[in-house]
Write a structure and sequence with these properties.
The structure is a homodimer of 216-residue chains. Chain A has 216 residues and is α+β, with helices and mostly antiparallel strands. The first copy, chain A, has two domains: 79 residues, Glutaredoxin, CATH 3.40.30; 107 residues, Glutathione S-transferase Yfyf (Class Pi), Chain A, domain 2 (Up-down Bundle), CATH 1.20.1050. Helices cover 50% and strands 7% of the residues of chain A. Chain A contains nine helices and four strands. In chain A, helix 4 packs antiparallel against helix 6 and helix 7 crosses helix 8. Chain A starts with 6 loop residues before the first strand and ends in a 15-residue tail after the last helix. At the A-B interface, strand 4, helix 3, helix 4 and helix 6 of A face strand 4, helix 3, helix 4 and helix 6 of B. Chains A, B: Its EC number is 2.5.1.18, 5.2.1.2. Chains A, B: One of its GO terms (biological process) is glutathione metabolic process. Chains A, B: Its cofactor is glutathione. Chains A, B: It is found in: Cytoplasm.
Chain lengths: 216, 216
């Protein structure tokens, strides 16, 4: 099957989309982007066309090499296996385990419990507290784990998949007004990573679907 | 660092612990088990000793080769990299992507939103409906995805990490009285897998900490 340029389905504010945008930027993978507005028209992810692409009705989705992949970490692992340079997983299996543990802590333990569709079910008056509790509890654990894994980045000094999860989650934390002073290691790593170009070009404030008032 | 037998920290009913128990059984990895009762004493996962082991206060945790790994999929990926036989990820990167997509769909998209600590926050009167909605929505997507990936198992005919996620999630669905007739492919694969020894010895009804009234 001949495939053209990879196509990323993305929403500027989706933290899971941002993870993949960083991976594509770091690995320098030329691609097209189709934006899916999760709010407009009752949510474009609920359209028939998009559901056929991803029955989970979530972004990101990546069409690449003739296949369609949903779930951000599955996408990043596929990119890593097929476009290994620069690597987003260390060579040492024990360090790879740390990277995946931190990635999963964020991708399974924090993000899904504070995402848009869950917060809608929680109800407007409780949303902020709910999200803050989830993130605070996850970040408390993460801050402790980072004491034994972090260098300049989450695991040692090289950017890894864990960092691709960290930065978008910190942005969510800021959006939900979580006080980050209790997490000096998370804050330090986040700051370091945000100075890198791949994290900047992929940032929610610089996407084609970023509303004018949120642009930077 | 010299390491003895791997130690799995597990709770009989934890679906994430079950995933790892299946992996250990399939790969024939000799190990010890320490049971953590998530309910007794207000939750043994909140003890100082356990928090030092896993700041996320969750099972499973695996101590192996001198390291401590939390997060079930990170554990399984580590086992796969260090004990590759029998394989739990296919050789073809595209099929690996399908396995990881299905695993993440369950491990990020379904399980975390219906786990014990979230249901406690949702409140007793809404718990059942909440869990049913989450599982129904995830299974509807999964049933559709399996149409293009499944053989005898979730991806083709070989047992993979996706199957290790599927069976425990179906058990949760049954516990929450989800009607499974709408998911014939999920039900068929689940039945096939439950006939395998590794899925049976690891089953919640056959663990050292299974209460007498739930034993089978």
């Amino acid at each position: 099957m001949q495939a053209g340029k990879p196509i990323l389905y993305s929403y500027f504010r989706s933290s899971c989309s941002w993870r993949v945008r960083i991976a594509l930027a770091l690995k320098g993978i030329d691609h097209e982007m189709i934006t899916i507005n999760l709010i407009k028209d009752g949510g474009q992810q609920f359209s028939k066309e998009f559901q056929a692409l991803n029955p989970m009705k979530q972004v990101p989705v990546l069409k690449i090499d003739g296949i369609t992949i949903g779930q951000s970490l599955a996408i990043i692992e596929y990119l890593e296996e097929t476009r290994p340079t620069p690597r987003l997983l260390p060579q040492d299996p024990k360090k790879r385990a740390s990277v995946r543990m931190i990635s999963d802590l964020i991708a399974s333990g924090i993000q899904p419990v504070q995402n848009l569709s869950i917060l809608e079910q929680v109800g407007q008056e409780k949303q902020l507290t709910w999200a803050q509790n989830v993130i605070t509890s996850g970040f408390t654990a993460l801050e402790q784990i980072l004491q034994s894994t972090a260098g300049r980045c989450c695991v040692g000094d090289e950017v890894s998949m864990a960092d691709l999860c960290l930065v978008p989650q910190v942005a969510n934390a800021e959006r939900f007004k979580v006080d980050l002073t209790a997490y000096p290691t998370i804050s330090r790593i986040n700051k370091t990573l945000l100075s890198l170009e791949a994290f900047q070009v992929s940032h929610p404030c610089r996407q084609p679907d970023t509303p004018a008032e949120l642009r930077a």
